[in-house]
Amino acid sequence: MIRDLSPDAEGFTISALRDCGVTDEGLLLLANKCPKVKVLAINGSTQITDKGLNSISAMSDLEYVSLERFARITEAGVFQLTALKKLQTLVVSNEVFSSRIAVALCKMSQFRDLGLSRIDGCEDIVAMIRSKRPDIRIEIMN
Asked: For 108-128, how does the pLDDT look when each residue is reduced to its tens digit (9 = 90+)?
């Protein structure tokens, strides 16, 4: 699917990949063929690892990243996304969210929205974000 993108694909600004079997290599191709993507939503991948997140962390126009139901990404991989200078919204599972990521997001003046799959284990981190940056909207999606 991603391999078949036409040369005109570099103008894409939105990419939603749901339960489609995308891999790290597919994310590298997406980053190379569609560098202007602003919105990236990936749902349900058992093949993407931190290596794939490294590829998308180089997509400098990304403003919205949603990574739901991932089996093989870690906190270190998600932390790479804090290098995105235009990132405004991040949606992730609470299992890969940490205080280190929260501190980095709080330092990003353009960051506005955080979505977490659950609050379990993140209560103190959420409280810290709310105290440092009350302007950040936090949604807990149970």
From this structure: 999 999 999 888 888 999 999
